[in-house]
């Protein structure tokens, strides 16, 4: 049974391989290219709320992503608060900031099933499982892994884990009723956050066998979501799949026949700017070409990249309509926390995070200010006498700085999406390639963008 799509995609302009859309989902609008921040803690959620409810330009920031275990502790209280009904039936509830925010933005809940395998956030996954009713097979796997992680020698545990994750999905796939239950349980959880776009729980694909399971999960999920909401097609992939032509061919064939309006990709820990990734870069570019061609044939299709990091800008100008990254613009799992010191500052002109210690020199050449016109950056100045950065003439603490730079990053990513949108409207999409070429750190990503492409 084909879904009747709730996503209404209207292509408003196109320049060769790039396009801009105005997309609506139940009264909420997405203007693409669009940046969708991955929100991971309460500070980031508050930053994003204030941005979306401000009078500042935010037309390219209409969606946000949250991992399912983070949403359980951060977002669910907001949703519950939004739905509290007044005691007096004759009075209307007073709109809260949380309600205004949720009524304006589109929530995307990442199933985060890679953490069935990965060590980072595995404890968060176990905590989530303890609060919901997963199939017994899932609970048995989680409990066994937790026991072996604590009691087995490191080498033995790693050897066991490599095989156990694959066997978990193979066994789940053989028992389709349990797989059906697993997907249904996930959709039950996602629905609690009132998301209108469901994401299927996926195996972390690093071989063709797991890709075959991913295809079946996508197909089953569409059938199970018919009465629930929009269901995206989703592929959770190891970056090693970009070196596997068979896997990429199978994905291409699936995309060309898929009925879903929205397709989402996540390549874990992808760093195509690094040396020695020529093969991966070429494969990623070819995948973008496939998506661009599909959208040219069917303008109602949309594609989204999760955890895109520095690949967001070139990706949003080619195959992907929506790109997502953390508010640090770094998507490698790490133990980064509030006491991590002064994080880097994203310089829009260079498309890269500059080290905090290098900012004084940059500011000296910019009249003592950061090279960004956003409201937070205009408050920050360099005090040459004290040799330190200050906000409103007060010394900045690491906690304050890491708050400020996230606010700045939202502004910067919205600005970059506007640059692509304007280039499309003015039929000058080649300027995007030129901007990447001029980046000191990311110039090799220029090969992700076609140099010569015939006009439509």
Outline the structure in words.
- The chain is an alpha/beta fold and 456 residues long.
- Helix content is 43%, strand content 18%.
- The chain is built from 15 helices and 17 strands.
- The protein has helices at residues 42-53, 68-74, 76-82, 97-104, 122-131, 136-151, 154-174, 176-192, 208-224, 245-257, 278-297, 312-316, 359-364, 398-425, 430-437; strands at 7-15, 18-25, 28-32, 34-38, 63-67, 106-110, 197-198, 230-231, 233-238, 262-268, 302-306, 322-326, 345-347, 352-354, 380-383, 388-391, 394-395.
- It has a five-stranded parallel beta sheet with strand order 4-12-11-10-9. A three-stranded antiparallel beta sheet has the order 1-2-3.
- α8 (176-192) packs across α9.
- The radius of gyration is 22 Å and the shape is globular.
- It starts with 6 loop residues before the first strand and ends in a 19-residue tail after the last helix.
């Amino acid at each position: 049974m084909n879904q009747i799509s709730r996503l209404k995609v209207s292509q408003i302009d196109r320049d060769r391989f790039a396009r801009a859309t105005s997309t609506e989902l139940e009264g909420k609008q997405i203007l693409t290219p669009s940046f969708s921040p991955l929100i991971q803690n309460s500070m980031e959620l508050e930053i994003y709320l204030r941005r979306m409810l401000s009078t500042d330009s935010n037309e390219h920031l209409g969606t946000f992503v949250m991992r399912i275990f983070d949403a359980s502790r951060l977002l669910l209280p907001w949703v519950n608060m939004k739905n509290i009904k007044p005691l007096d039936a004759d009075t209307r509830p007073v709109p809260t900031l949380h309600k205004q925010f949720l009524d304006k933005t589109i929530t995307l809940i990442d199933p985060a099933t890679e953490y069935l395998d990965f060590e980072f956030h595995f404890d968060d996954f176990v905590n989530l499982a303890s609060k919901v009713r997963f199939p017994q097979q899932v609970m048995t796997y989680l409990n066994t892994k937790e026991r072996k992680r604590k009691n087995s020698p490191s080498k033995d545990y790693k050897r066991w884990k490599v095989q156990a994750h694959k066997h978990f999905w193979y066994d789940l796939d053989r028992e389709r009723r349990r797989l059906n239950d697993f997907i249904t349980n996930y959709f039950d959880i996602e629905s609690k956050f009132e998301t209108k776009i469901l994401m299927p729980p996926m195996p972390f694909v690093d071989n063709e066998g797991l890709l075959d399971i991913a295809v079946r999960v996508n197909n089953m999920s569409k059938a199970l979501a018919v009465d629930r909401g929009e269901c995206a097609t989703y592929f959770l992939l190891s970056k090693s799949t970009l070196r596997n032509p068979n896997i990429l061919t199978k994905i291409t064939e699936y995309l060309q026949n898929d009925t879903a309006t929205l397709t989402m990709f996540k390549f874990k820990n992808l760093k195509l700017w690094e040396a020695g990734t020529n093969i991966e870069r070429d494969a990623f570019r070819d995948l973008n070409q496939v998506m661009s061609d599909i959208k040219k044939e069917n303008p109602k299709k949309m594609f989204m990249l999760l955890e895109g990091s520095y690949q967001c800008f070139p990706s949003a100008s080619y195959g992907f309509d929506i790109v997502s990254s953390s508010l640090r613009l770094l998507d490698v799992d790490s133990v980064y926390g509030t006491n991590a010191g002064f994080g880097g500052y994203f310089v829009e002109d260079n498309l890269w995070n500059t080290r905090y210690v290098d900012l004084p020199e940059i500011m000296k050449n910019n009249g003592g200010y950061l090279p960004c016109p956003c409201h937070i950056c205009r408050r920050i100045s360099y005090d040459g006498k004290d040799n330190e950065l200050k906000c409103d003439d007060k010394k900045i603490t690491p906690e304050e700085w890491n708050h400020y730079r996230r606010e700045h990053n939202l502004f910067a990513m919205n600005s970059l999406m506007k640059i692509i949108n304007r280039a499309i409207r003015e039929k000058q999409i080649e300027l995007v390639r030129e901007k990447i070429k001029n980046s000191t750190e990311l110039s090799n990503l220029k090969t992700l963008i076609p140099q010569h492409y015939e006009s439509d």
